[in-house]
Design brief:
This is Probable RNA 2'-phosphotransferase. The protein has 6 helices and 12 strands. With about 210 residues, it is of the alpha+beta class. It has 2 domains: about 1-100, RNA 2'-phosphotransferase, Tpt1/KptA family, N-terminal domain (Arc Repressor Mutant, subunit A, Orthogonal Bundle); about 120-205, Alpha-Beta Barrel (ADP-ribosylation fold), CATH 3.20.170.30.
């Protein structure tokens, strides 16, 4: 459920996490889920199916996206999309200048332009069965345009455990990779994007 606190903006749940206010109703759970899936698909996977014009860096007109959503479900308004983005704790989307884009998760050929990562390390989790292949071939994206890395060990474990109960986590020398010319970008506080990580930049494995 999405509600809006007059003091702190949109949030998900029954009460504002900052002040406890109930706030104004925006979307119920079912509509939040349906609109979220639609926006994800439109911005990450199939804009062409919706005849949704997209810039090469992933931006689309929020008016056009709203119209596409309303064409499917009838009820979505622009403020529903703004509320969806504002209340999203995972930072999946960004809005600027009347446009919206997904920060990460694309399967289409966008060319993103985020700031370069300035930290020392990055992390990537896999199932134990994948370790030997990665140690031979490096880390490459599978179903997505970009390889997604985590900024912390804890986040990498959290992400990997979606797919496996006993993940192996690679620690990556992101600083050296950037110094050698690899483009490692900051999508949000938790997620980094790059084209690949060659074996030479893998420092150790946590199992």
């Amino acid at each position: 459920m999405i509600r809006k606190c007059k003091e702190h903006g949109c949030f998900r749940g029954e009460a504002c996490p900052y002040c406890g206010a109930v706030g104004d109703f925006i979307l119920d759970d079912d509509r939040e889920d349906r609109l979220g899936r639609f926006v994800s698909g439109a911005l990450r996977h199939f804009p062409e199916k919706l005849e949704l014009p997209m810039y090469i860096d992933g931006w689309v007109s929020i008016n056009a996206l709203t119209a596409a959503a309303a064409g499917k479900y009838k009820w979505p308004k622009k403020y529903h999309i703004y509320a969806l983005v504002e209340s999203d704790e995972k930072g999946r989307y960004e809005i600027a200048g009347g446009k919206i884009r997904a920060r990460y998760g694309h399967s289409i050929g966008v060319i993103l332009n985020y700031p370069a990562y300035e930290g020392e390390f990055a992390y990537y989790g896999v199932s134990p069965e994948e370790v030997d292949v990665i140690l031979e071939q490096g880390i490459h994206p599978v179903k997505q345009k970009y390889l997604h890395l985590s900024t912390t060990l804890e986040k990498a474990i959290e992400v990997a455990m979606i797919h496996t109960e006993n993940p192996s986590i690679f620690k990556i020398d992101a600083k050296a990779a950037c110094e050698d010319g690899l483009n490692v970008m900051v999508a949000n506080d938790d997620i980094l994007l790059t084209d690949e990580i060659p074996v030479d930049y893998i420092l150790e494995i946590y199992e």
